[in-house]
Amino acid sequence: MHKLRIKKGDKVQVIAGQDKGKKGSVLAVNPTAMKIKIEGVKVMTHYDKKDGLLKKEGFIDYSNVKLVEKVVAKAAKEKKATVKKTAAKSK
């Protein structure tokens, strides 16, 4: 099993399929099926008894996208900032 390098919130571009060339941010990731859901890609019509017809994104295969922009976690940024502050104080 491969490790997915794409996480929720990353910006990706579709490189294969009917939505080829579209860019969007990752809404959801299914690591066991190796599929991801991208904003505005593979939009499908879904009928709900309560809300009627809805447009929803469907999952596409992980191999059909390439990473455009990686979103860095806030926790990692905060750790770096605290390390720099403590290093400056120790001098």
Question: How would you explain this protein's 3D organization?
Answer:
The protein is an alpha+beta fold and 91 residues long. It has one domain: SH3 type barrels (Roll). It contains 1 helix and 7 strands; from the N terminus they run βββββββα. The strands form 2 sheets. It has a 5-stranded antiparallel β-sheet, with no helix packed on it. The protein has a two-stranded antiparallel ribbon with strand order 4-5. A hairpin with a 4-residue loop joins strand 2 (23-30) and strand 3. The chain is globular. The model has no long low-confidence stretch (mean pLDDT 85).
Secondary-structure map with pairings?
Layout: E1 11-14, E2 23-30, E3 35-38, E4 43-48, E5 52-57, E6 59-61, E7 65-69, H1 74-90
Antiparallel strand pairs: 1-2, 1-7, 2-3, 3-6, 4-5
What labels describe this entry?
single chain; 91 residues; alpha+beta; SH3 type barrels; five-stranded antiparallel sheet; two-stranded antiparallel sheet; 1 helix
Low-confidence segments, given as residue ranges, are: none
Strand content: 35-45%
- Compute the separation of the termini in Å: 47 Å
CATH topology group: SH3 type barrels
Coarse shape = globular
Number of domains: 1
